[in-house]
Structures are given as structure tokens and as C-alpha cells.
Amino acid sequence: MAIDIESYLTEIDPDHVCGEDLEYDAEFIAFEQEVQGKEEQTMGDSVIEAEPPNWREVIKKAEKLLTRTRDLRVFLNYLRALTETQGLLGLADGLHLLNSVMEKHWEHIHPQLDPDDDNDPTERINILMALCDFESFLKPLHKIPLIESKAFGRFNLRDIQIAHGSITLSKSEEEAELPQLATIDGAFQECEADTLKAMADSASAALTDLNQMESFVTEQVGVNDAASFTEFRTVLKEINTIFAEQVERRGLNEPAVEEEDASAGETAAVSTGSAKSVKSAGPPGINNNQDVIKTLKMIADYYKKNEPSSPIPLLLERVNRLVGKDFMEVMQDLAPNGVEQVEFLSGSVKNEE
Q1: DSSP codes of every residue in 257-270
Q2: Is 154 in the same domain as 188?
Q3: For residue 260, what pLDDT is reported?
Q4: Is residue 272 part of a domain?
Q5: Lowest-confidence range among 90-94, 152-156, 345-349?
Q6: Which residues contact 240 (CB under 8 A, 6 or more apart)?
Q7: Same domain for 171 and 147
Q8: Higher pLDDT, 66 or 168
Q9: DSSP string of 11-68?
Q10: How many Cβ atoms from other residues are within 10 Å of residue 8's Cβ?
């Protein structure tokens, strides 16, 4: 099920961009109760077992509420429900929705910032930090299926960790038949190429959205009040590593554009009977200012994706502006107050008598 993200980016009402705060609305309360599921109950000598949330019902209730309000609490639980029912694809869709809505509606989204309390973001940050809650997100992330095969079965992140021997087993797992790496690899090998690539792309997109979201929130509230999604990111990175290895093993990585262009150039030179010998394409180098700019951008993108709180991208953006400038232009940008002294010392400005 693809989410119509654009429909959640529109204004609900010109006077109330994100609709009303429904915290005490009966429909909102019923929604939050649905998310909790049912606790274990004792009636006399009988014990009624706890029931997990009906996640499909949570999705229905969330989508209905989101026609009336734009609320972080609803979006977070919508994300949970999508993850529980649609696995990795649902997780990627839900994170992209949450990231997009926050960027679009940060000023008005509920719960709103209180101008009388210096726009204290604590309530919003606490809601977002649910992403690092074990029961709400981290445990489900370990349980959603990453690969499914008719011949070999279905496997999740915890199965793969067990097969690698990288985690401590629970008592029930010690007594059960443990998943084997050969079986898991067989499932990945049997998977259709398009399906495997789609799953890998979803994992990558989810990590990108999480990092962008953390960077955006940090920009809005400052480093001291910002949320850190380290635990959530760690799990997503592990999932990404698994898919990256399987995609590479299957030879499904897309060739780099530079390699394609170089190959095309070599073919053209040979077919036209060029007298000059054609050099085989080696590793790409830095040959001009455009290559410098491209390389700096790649480095900045790496830090934005993997270390969103790092100041390096900001510094590199400034360095990028200096590419191609001469010495005096660089001085004008970095130390405008010192330009006159440099001009005087270099003799380009004469003393006025």
C-alpha cells in the first residue's frame, strides 16, 4: 500500500494549517487505546491473555484522524502500524511521511510549541524519541521479515544475528532449532532480483530519511535540545549492510555513470578507427574545478547521511564557494577586513598623499 504523502502535506484549513489539537477528543483517545492493545486480565480463577494491538485497525483510525489533524503522536503510531503490517516497505514509507510532514509543517504541527514557554520543544522531542523505544520500534525492527522463500522459509534480523552468533540467545531460542547461514543465504539467492533490489532500496531510503529528520530537528531546536536516534540508526545500518552484501553478491549494483560514459567513449573511438590509442578507464581522478566541487559535495553528503550532527558539511559548503576564486577573492570572502592591508602590501593600492 503506497501512502499518498502529498495529501498529508496540504493545509487542513487556512486558519488552522494542521487542524485542531485532538488530544482530548473521543476519537483520538480511542485511537491511543487501540495502540495499547489489551492487557492481561484476571477474572476469578480465569486469566484472559493480553492481546496485541490490531494494527490494521490502528491504520484505519490513524488515517481517519489525519483528515482532521496533523499530530506527531498520530504519525508515530501510524509508522508503527505500517511497520508491523508491511515490514520494511511500510517502515520506509512511514519514515518518509514523518520526515516530509515535519519539514513542511514544523511551525504548526501538534503538539504545538508554546510561545509563552520560549517555544520549548521538549514535548515534541519526547514523542520522536519513541523511535528508540525497545518495545515500540527496536524490537519490531528485529522481527519484521527481511527475506522470504518458499523453499527456505522466512527470516528476520534476529534470525540473521543468531546465525552469525552475534547475540545472546534466550532460553526458548536455546531449545529451538536455530537458523543457519546457509539456509538464509539460500533464501536470498532464491529471491527475485527486483524484489531484493526493492527491499534494499527501502532500507537505504529509511536510513536516509531518519538522518535527514535528525538533522532537520537539530536545526530547529539546537544541538542542546535535539533528539538522537542512535539506537534506531544502528539497527537500520545493520539491515542496510545485510542487503548491500546480498545485492553485491547477486551482481545487482548499478554501474557508475562515469564508468558507463568511459566505456561508451572507448567504444566510439574504436568504431571510428581512431589512430590514437585509447587508454583503459582507470579510477576517476580530480582534473578540474568541477571535479573538486563534485568531490566536496560527495564528502558533505556522506557526513549528512552518516553523521548528521557533524559541522563538516557546513564547512565544506563554504569551501565549495571558494573553488575557482583567485587569492584576493578568497581573502574578500574569508577576511574582508584584511583585504586593504593585503592590497597595500602587494602594491596594488598606493598611499594617497
Answers
A1: HHHHHHHHHHHHHH
A2: yes
A3: 45
A4: no
A5: 345-349
A6: 200, 203, 204, 207
A7: yes
A8: 66
A9: -S-SSSTTB---TT-HHHHHHHHHHH-B--EEETTEEEPPB---HHHHHHHHHHHTTT
A10: 20
| Residue 152 covered by a domain | yes
Say whether both 164 and 94 belong to one domain.
no
Contact 60, 91 (CB under 8 A): no
- pLDDT per position as a tens digit, 61-80: 999 999 999 999 999 999 99
Backbone φ/ψ region at 285: left (φ over 0), alpha (ψ -120 to 50), beta: beta
Number of other residues whose CB lies within 10 A of the CB of residue 305: 16
Radius of gyration (C-alpha) of the chain in whole angstroms: 27
Question: Is 273 part of any domain?
Answer: no
Asked if residue 66 and residue 157 are part of one domain, the reply reads no
Name the grid cell of 228.
538522537
DSSP, collapsed to helix, strand or coil, labels residue 95 as helix
- Determine the length of the chain: 353
Residue 158, all three cell numbers: 534476529
What pTM, to 2 d.p., does this model score? Answer: 0.72
Taking only the tens place, the pLDDT of each residue in 251-275 is 888 765 444 454 444 444 434 343 3
According to the model, what pLDDT value does residue 348 have?
Answer: 54
Question: What letter would DSSP give residue 71?
Answer: B
Distance CA 238, CA 244 (A): 10
Residue 276: how many other CB atoms lie within 10 Å: 6
Per-residue pLDDT of 234-255, as tens digits, reads 999 999 999 999 999 988 887 6
Is residue 233 one of the residues assigned to a domain? yes
Q: Is the pLDDT of residue 179 over 50?
A: yes
